[in-house]
């Protein structure tokens, strides 16, 4: 039961209409009330004002006590109509006009108002005339008194001074008390079975979703049914708004019990008690307290802000449309004035699972680490300190973050806490090194300790702490102790896929921002939500260790050999709820009872499923998978312990967790009290029956279908004579009359209070039940983690199984330098196409490590580059590869420079973007790396571009020594590097018809050099007029001859510049020149051997 009016000394004879003024808390609803549920459904339909016609109305029989209006109501209009919206707070127009509009819009409904109700409405209109808008809304200021045009204005707060509260009703005080802390948040206020929005929030609901706007005294209002809150909250979130939920924390009976208990503790005078009933004034001390501080003496149903939702801090999975992690990121930057390089502190939060990741990034000139991090997580919300982020950082983030990402700025120090302030606030929850060992608090998590010496990381964490505190989530999330150190590059632990590679290779998203055709979409076939999140981490960080890769491949083979295991696991995993998120909500004590029962049932099913799989798979058949099953924790006793403590009670649409009989003392005591009172009521009925001389079936207790307080009315035949001194008639029909007496009212009151005690006891029991579940939180999370790992392995096995032939298990060789050897390799997204041309790809080992790739546009060069990178990623993830053979040594990183694009937000031209990416590759690549450079140098003049491309190719093949493809249209490069032993010249095969100017692309990688880029042939295929193509052919031939002649006149030696550079490097090495020194002895030897081989080749030539 949810009700809001204080219980008076008399039980009401009549129930008030839902159409009465919403400002009062006097209507009651009952969960068992079918009539009220129907009314709620009708209300839900009526709040939408875009219906094609007037709402259906039931016929109402008029009573003679109703007043008729002076003029007839207007005829219904077939056009859409709604009450005219009130002016915004900043408007200075028309109080009288607004009152007139309200009178006109209400005229039709006045037919059903009594004279007293009409006078009440007139009083409201009179009040409206005197004060149309709250004075603090005319020129809003934030809590610090700053106006909206102030650069430091805080849109989250609203200044309401002490004197503004004096003329407010108790409910207005309650609303604005909370709203002043959340001025930029749409607050849903619970009133009975509805959630209502007021003032600016109501305007938003009306403007965005056409909710029917209703005018109240000083307050505009729209409302939605309680059972539709999740739907409407999701709609507001999708539109980019913050959403807050303010819930009733007690019923009207509970309020009466509370106020009576408070009054019994006081010995105040009659004057003080009268003032408390009217409502205590708000003091300056009150204004310093938080939004959920209850104003003493204000007699109104207590409400508290339960949650605040933003797209980045959603904690309830019901509001999330995706199973992927939902990230909010706090970012703090420091720029070194001497180098111009940036360092970053980062805090990443997935509020739905309660996971914090802390990071400290020392970045390069193009902020590679920062870009990689944001491409990996794609946050929904970004928090930053005002005036902290540099222009370059802002431009980068604007370029790579989705347009839907919310940006929230905060005051530095005051809201983005300093390192010391962050640690001081953490000391309220955790035991710091300076605290005594017997503090009783948990030890500070290791991840925070590891980052405590990084001020930037702790300041970013401080900004996140401030934000979640304002969301009312601080304690719930911080006490989960789920902290990690995040390393976006993961040096030495896994293959590095930086932001450029993730983007160019379309690992997580395609070039349109979606997932279609990406590696994630092709390989991720998990059944559980937590498995899907873990698989994403596996994909962005493939393995490097040969043993770990082979162990994962062994597990895939074992699963492929046992398809029944995959099928059984998938069947039960698909039915699992998002346990990871639900365990987090249980820790916060905020999970719905129905969902808690689902969690317990899910873990019970998991235990049974794991036992079945353990008996199905033997260690001999599946060593790796059996090892995972053996490591699964024994959750059976813990599940059975919980199941013995509670049972479920369901009635119609209600679901309630109650303790097993006599399992909870408080509930048992409250139930005993109810049983005693019900026995007293039956004795009262029997005693009254005897005194009235009625038969047993002629006298009974009657209960309203709406429940609430209209219960246990004594129903007797209408002909029964009842003493008016003792009995007060409440209701009746032609055949029966219903009465209360003072004794009966006392018993009913006692019963209502006992039921309220039982309700409170049940809530306490459920809270203790969740706390008991949370004691084993580490056990539940371990089980979830192992389930996710098994789900990911099955996903890899299923992706391998669904792959078309030829396919193979990759073979790995542990080697100090990387090499790859694929036969009949195909792109994984094209595996099912029979017309796709496979290719052999070999780099390193017995062949040169760098391939100089030529060929015309559309010949398949970019596809070849992408499918090679995809093959490496899939192999090191532990998946089968779409090739007939795959032998490789693990690659430590994949780096790419592909495509021609500029970066408007970063103020960088196409050529500048090319050089930034190229410089990063030259700095970071090594003998274990795989690099792709596609058409480097095309963003500038021909000669400059060719010179840069040649120099980069020479440096990579001679000194950096990664595996790689260097795709180009510069034909002269193929001549310059004929001598180089580490460069292999290959091209995409084509068939050319010069007469028809047609090119047939054969998409086959073959040795040699493409005879031309055939640009004019492609122009013909594109429909360029033949005259233009002919002229282009002629100009191209002239340019080619002139270019060769120019090179011939400039060359002063038979050796190319590159060859002379190699000889010069050897001379410097002999002289021990510092330019030839490198920190890695193994790489230095490899580099020297390569230069010597190149010089020997020169001598031969």
TrEMBL record:
Biased composition (Low complexity): 88-98
GO biological process terms on file: mismatch repair
Keywords on record: ATP-binding, DNA damage, DNA repair, DNA-binding, Nucleotide-binding
Function recorded in the entry: Component of the post-replicative DNA mismatch repair system (MMR).
Domain DNA mismatch repair proteins mutS family: 929-945
Protein name: DNA mismatch repair protein
Species in which this protein is naturally found: Kockovaella imperatae
One annotated Gene Ontology cellular component of this protein: MutSalpha complex
Top-rank taxon, per record: Eukaryota
Presence of the UniProt keyword tRNA processing in the record: no
GO molecular function, one term: ATP-dependent DNA damage sensor activity
Family classification: Belongs to the DNA mismatch repair MutS family.
Amino acid composition bias (Acidic residues), ranges on this chain: 22-44
Keyword Protein transport attributed: no
PROSITE patterns per the UniProt record, alphabetical: DNA_MISMATCH_REPAIR_2 (PS00486)
Region Disordered, residue ranges: 1-105
């Amino acid at each position: 039961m949810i009700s809001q009016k204080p219980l008076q000394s008399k039980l009401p004879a009549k129930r008030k209409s839902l159409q009465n003024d919403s400002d009062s808390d006097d209507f009651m609803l009952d969960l068992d009330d079918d009539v009220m549920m129907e009314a709620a459904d009708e209300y839900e339909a009526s709040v939408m004002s875009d219906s094609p016609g007037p709402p259906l109305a039931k016929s109402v029989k008029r009573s003679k006590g109703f007043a008729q209006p002076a003029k007839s109501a207007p005829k219904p209009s077939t056009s859409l109509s709604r009450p005219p919206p009130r002016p915004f707070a900043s408007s200075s127009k028309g109080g009288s006009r607004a009152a007139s509009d309200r009178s006109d819009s209400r005229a039709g409904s006045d037919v059903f108002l009594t004279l007293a109700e009409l006078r009440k409405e007139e009083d409201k209109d009179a009040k409206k005339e005197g004060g149309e808008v709250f004075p603090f809304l005319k020129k809003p200021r934030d809590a610090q008194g700053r106006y909206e045009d102030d650069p430091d204005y805080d849109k989250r707060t609203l200044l309401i001074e002490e004197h503004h509260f004096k003329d407010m009703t108790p409910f207005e005080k309650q609303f604005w008390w909370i709203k002043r802390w959340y001025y930029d948040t749409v607050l849903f206020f619970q009133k009975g079975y509805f959630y209502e929005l007021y003032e600016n929030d109501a305007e938003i609901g009306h403007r965005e979703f056409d909710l029917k706007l209703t005018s109240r005294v000083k307050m505009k209002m729209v409302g939605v049914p309680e059972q539709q809150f999740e739907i409407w909250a999701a709609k507001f979130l999708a539109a980019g708004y913050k959403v807050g939920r303010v819930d009733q924390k007690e019923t009207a009976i509970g309020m009466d019990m509370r106020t009576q208990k408070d009054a019994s503790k006081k010995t105040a005078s009659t004057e003080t008690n009268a003032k408390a009933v009217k409502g205590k004034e708000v003091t300056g001390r009150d204004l310093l307290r938080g939004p959920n501080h209850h104003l003493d003496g204000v007699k109104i149903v207590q409400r508290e802000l339960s949650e605040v939702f933003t797209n980045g801090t959603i904690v309830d999975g019901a509001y999330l449309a995706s199973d992927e992690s939902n990230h909010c990121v706090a970012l703090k930057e420091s720029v070194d004035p001497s180098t111009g390089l940036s360092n970053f502190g980062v805090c990443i939060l997935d509020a739905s699972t309660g996971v914090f990741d802390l990071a400290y990034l020392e970045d390069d000139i193009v902020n590679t680490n920062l870009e990689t991090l944001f491409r990996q997580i794609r946050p929904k919300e970004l928090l930053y300190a005002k005036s902290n982020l540099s222009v370059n950082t802002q431009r980068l983030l604007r370029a790579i973050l989705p347009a839907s990402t919310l940006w929230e700025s905060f005051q530095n120090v005051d809201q983005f806490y300093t390192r010391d302030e962050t640690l001081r606030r953490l000391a309220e929850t955790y035991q710091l090194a300076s605290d005594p060992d017997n503090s009783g608090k948990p030890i500070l998590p290791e991840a925070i300790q590891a980052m405590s010496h990084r001020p930037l990381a702790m300041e970013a964490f401080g900004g996140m702490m401030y934000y979640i505190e304002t969301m009312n989530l601080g304690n719930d999330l911080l006490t989960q102790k789920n902290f990690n150190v995040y390393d976006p590059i993961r040096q030495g632990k896994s293959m590095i896929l930086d932001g450029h590679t993730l983007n160019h290779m379309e690992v997580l998203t395609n070039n349109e921002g979606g997932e279609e055709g990406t590696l994630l979409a092709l390989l991720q076939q998990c059944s559980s939500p937590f498995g899907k999140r873990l698989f994403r981490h596996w994909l962005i960080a493939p393995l490097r260790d040969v043993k770990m890769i082979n162990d994962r491949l062994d597990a895939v083979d074992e699963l492929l050999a046992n398809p029944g295991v995959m099928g059984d696991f998938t069947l039960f995993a698909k039915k699992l709820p998002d346990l990871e998120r639900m365990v987090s909500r249980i820790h916060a004590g905020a999970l719905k009872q129905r969902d808690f029962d689902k969690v317990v049932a899910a873990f019970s099913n998991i235990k049974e499923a794991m036992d079945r799989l353990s008996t199905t798979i033997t260690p001999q058949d599946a060593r790796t998978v059996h090892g995972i099953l053996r490591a699964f924790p024994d959750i059976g006793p813990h599940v059975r312990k919980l199941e013995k403590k509670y049972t479920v009670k369901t009635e119609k649409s209600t679901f309630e967790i109650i303790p097993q009989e006599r399992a909870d003392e408080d509930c048992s005591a409250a139930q005993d009290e109810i049983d005693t009172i019900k026995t007293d009521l039956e004795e009262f009925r029997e005693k009254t029956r005897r005194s009235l001389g009625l038969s047993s079936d002629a006298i009974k207790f009657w209960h309203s279908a709406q429940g609430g307080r209209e219960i246990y009315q004594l129903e007797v035949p209408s002909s029964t004579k009842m003493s008016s001194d003792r009995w007060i008639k409440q209701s009746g029909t032609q055949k029966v009359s219903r009465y209360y007496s003072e004794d009966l009212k006392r018993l009913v009151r006692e019963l209502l209070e006992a039921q309220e005690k039982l309700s409170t006891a049940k809530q306490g029991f459920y809270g203790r039940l969740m706390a008991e579940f949370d004691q084993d939180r580490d056990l539940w999370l371990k089980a979830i983690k192992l389930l996710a790992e098994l789900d990911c392995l099955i996903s890899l096995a299923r992706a391998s199984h669904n792959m078309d032939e030829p396919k193979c298990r990759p073979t790995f060789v542990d080697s100090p330098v990387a090499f790859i050897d694929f036969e009949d390799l195909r792109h994984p997204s094209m595996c099912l196409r029979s017309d796709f041309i496979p290719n052999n790809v070999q780099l390193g080992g017995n062949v040169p490590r760098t391939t100089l790739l030529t060929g015309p546009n559309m010949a398949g060069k970019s596809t070849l580059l992408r499918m090679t990178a995809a093959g490496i990623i899939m192999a090191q993830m532990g998946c089968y590869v779409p090739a007939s053979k795959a032998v490789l040594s693990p690659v430590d990183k994949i780096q790419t420079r592909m495509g021609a694009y500029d970066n408007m937000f970063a103020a960088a031209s196409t050529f500048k973007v090319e050089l930034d990416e190229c410089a990063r590759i030259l700095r970071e690549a090594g003998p274990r790396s795989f690099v792709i450079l596609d058409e480097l140098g095309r963003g500038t003049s021909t000669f400059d571009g060719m010179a840069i491309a040649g120099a980069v190719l020479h440096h990579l093949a001679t000194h950096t020594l990664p595996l790689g493809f260097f795709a180009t249209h510069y034909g002269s490069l193929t001549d310059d590097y004929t001598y180089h032993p580490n460069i292999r010249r290959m091209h995409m095969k084509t068939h050319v018809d010069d007469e028809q100017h047609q090119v047939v692309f054969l998409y086959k990688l073959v040795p040699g050099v493409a005879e031309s880029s055939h640009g004019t042939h492609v122009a013909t295929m594109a429909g360029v007029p033949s005259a233009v193509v002919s002229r282009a052919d002629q100009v191209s031939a002239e340019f080619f001859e002139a270019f060769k002649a120019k090179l011939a006149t400039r060359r002063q030696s038979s050796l190319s510049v590159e060859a002379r550079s190699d000889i010069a490097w050897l001379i410097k090495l002999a002289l021990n020149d510092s330019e030839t020194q490198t920190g890695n002895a193994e790489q230095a030897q490899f580099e020297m051997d390569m230069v010597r081989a190149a010089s020997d080749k020169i001598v031969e030539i």
